[in-house]
Structures are given as C-alpha cells and as structure tokens.
User: What shape does this take?
Amino acid sequence: MLPRANHTLPMPTFVSAFCQLASLTDSAITDLKGMLHTKSYDKGEKLLSYGERCKRLYFIDEGLTKTFFSNESKEFIMRFFSEYALFTVVDSFTAQTPSHYEILALEKTSVTYINQQDLEALCKKHHCIESAFRKLLSIATTNMMKRISEMLEENATERYNRFLRDNGQLLQRISLGDLSCYLGITQVSLSRIRSGK
Amino acid sequence: MLPRANHTLPMPTFVSAFCQLASLTDSAITDLKGMLHTKSYDKGEKLLSYGERCKRLYFIDEGLTKTFFSNESKEFIMRFFSEYALFTVVDSFTAQTPSHYEILALEKTSVTYINQQDLEALCKKHHCIESAFRKLLSIATTNMMKRISEMLEENATERYNRFLRDNGQLLQRISLGDLSCYLGITQVSLSRIRSGK
DNA sequence: TGTATTATTTATCATTTGTAAAAAAACATC
DNA sequence: GATGTTTTTTTACAAATGATAAATAATACA
Assistant: This one.
C-alpha cells in the first residue's frame, strides 16, 4: 500500500471513489451505501472464473488482483488492480454475458462491491449515479486506448520501462512471470530485457 | 457499403443507431433530432487534428475514416470506422482535453454528428439518452479489450487473418500501408505475410 | 499514350523475440 | 540447516519482424 501523504486524510472508499466521478446527491449516496457488500479473498482465490457472469463492480480496499485470460499454453494479463481501484469485467458486467476473463487475487484482498442489478436500479433511480458510472466507463475506455497505443508504438523494452515508471510500486508485489504476461512477452525475454542485453 | 438484405429496410441513421443502444422516449428522440448536424469531408480531409478538442460524436452515413496517431517516423491506427458506425475520440470528447489522436477521411465521407455540449445537455435532460451513451461507452470499452486481447495472444499472421475474417469487406477500401499500421507491423512484414512465406 | 507518383513486393541482412532445456537463486517447510 | 518447490536467469538455437534499398505494379493525370 502506498504511504498516504497525510494520515489524517480519510481512506478512499467505494463511495468516495464514486463521488469523485460525478457529484452525487445525499439521497443517492445513502442508497448507494445501502447496496454495498464487502468480502475478502485469500491469495490465489478467484473473484471471477471463466464463463461466469461478472455480477459485481469491485473496489479494492486492500490487496492486489489480476484480470487475465488463457489459451492452452499461455496466460495473458489485461490489468492489475490494487488499492482503491474501481473495476469490473466491463462486457460481462454490462451485458451479463459469460466472461472471457478471470479475476484472481494475487494477495489477500479485501473488496467492497455492488451487484450489477443493484447498480442498474440505482442508475434508474438516481441520474447522478448513472453519470458517475458513465464517467467510469469513459475512463476505462481511455485506459484501454492508452494500452493499445503503447502496444502499437513501443517495443518490449520500452513497455517494460513504462511499467516501471507508471507502476514502479507494484513491481515488488508482482511476479516477473505475471509481468511478462502483462507485457505480452515470454519470461525469458523479460529476463533478457532486465539484464540489459 | 454492404448490400442491405432487403432494400426496403430503412437506412441506419444516427437516431436509429442511438435507439438501438437504449430505448428512447419520443421527447428524447425529438430533442436529439434537433441537435444533429451533417457534414461532408473529402478524401484526405481531417475530421480532427492533433491537439484539437474533439467536440463531436460522429455517425458515418457514408464513407470511411481512420483514427490514428503518429510519432516522428511512423503512424499507428487505432481503428477504422465505416458506414453506420457511431464514434468519437472518447478521452478528448469526454474530458474536453486536447486529442492525441487524429481522424482522417480515407474516402469522401458524410457524417451526422452531435456536439459534446449538446449531448451533455441532453444527457442531463433525458435519462434515457445518458443510458444510451453509457451503453455506447461500454461497447467501446469491450471493443478495446478485444483488441488488447488479440494483440497479446496473436502474432501478426493471426491478426491479419482475423482482420480478413472480421473486416474482409474493408480490405478493398483500405491501403495495405494503413492495414499494416493497424496491425502494428511494417508494410514489408505485411507483404510477407500475404505472400505466405 | 507517356510520365510522374504512389503503392506493393522482393531481397538482403540485422535485431528482436520465441522455444527448450538447464542452471542458479529465492522461498517454503519440515 | 536440509530438502523440495517455485521463480528467475542463462544459454543456445530457431523463427518472426524490422530496416534499408531496389524492383515491380498500380494509379493519376497532363
């Protein structure tokens, strides 16, 4: 976990993260709070399995997860999510279709979540909640576009260096095997890059 | 343009595309129609330049565009959009920030569009319009995730074959240079793949 | 038609990345 | 501390892709 600049600052929460997306009415905040659940996962536990419908929008209170998919032989990591991230598997969550992706806890992880049906109902009831959720989706799209741009423009060495720059803190918590799956290269290749040859 | 199965079917329009995302009230449809504009671009004209704020959500009535960015030496194509596609540059449009991406007409292209401010106002006024827009964003995210998955899992040959499968019709309308910029390989490499060596 | 321009292919060589197997290092457990 | 397991690195070789330059094909247009 990142050291917080001022420990008197309140810890980010699902609600505070949502409020940052769009300003919410008091009544919306009350209703939102009423729909939240919490859950803990051990290291290695799955939050979502292949083929399952993703029913939850997650906020990580503590811990680290990866969203990934696999073929016969290899694994491919879409993203890591750590403390204070708000995330889901967008396509499965939105359309309630079987997920092509899985979510796994890389550490003991505590989450706060809301169920898809409850969020959908809140969107209907509170326009501001739908606005916040829309904002979240536009941020998600933006992040994905950045990732595509980087994959197009940069080679493996540049992508590794960018990861160090943008996610240096995570490096200590992620195995190099997982990092290579995220970068889209083999672990051997990543090891080569790190050794600077 | 794809031959339409039954030519008595009405042509897709901005409004019909939007209605497919979420059901709109009559009053929302009326307001939406009142905010639409049309414009034509010659082949080679830019719909959006680097650093400009993307102010419009576009629907293509006819023609073909590419969304791309460049560094000193190379160009990278995010996506092609052809008839009946609804699109914008999400980050620039949503946050009204300078765009890292450009949009260029690859053919004479006619669009229907709505201005960001007008859409934002409509989202405020009509909950159903915001729902439709949210749906559009979740589809955009899903498309981006698919693209990332493919870039991670597939090599250049597989990506080319997938493009043929998914966008075969476009192949006739896109230069192989542009296709290589989309696939993330050089034109020489694409030529090699096509020749099957 | 002829010419200029652009797009595509081919050839050659360098670099990057992948594959497979083994070695080394780090970690966990008894 | 000894042992077994997992992670990471190293090595050697193969395959894919990039860079450059030249050849060919397609297109535009005077």
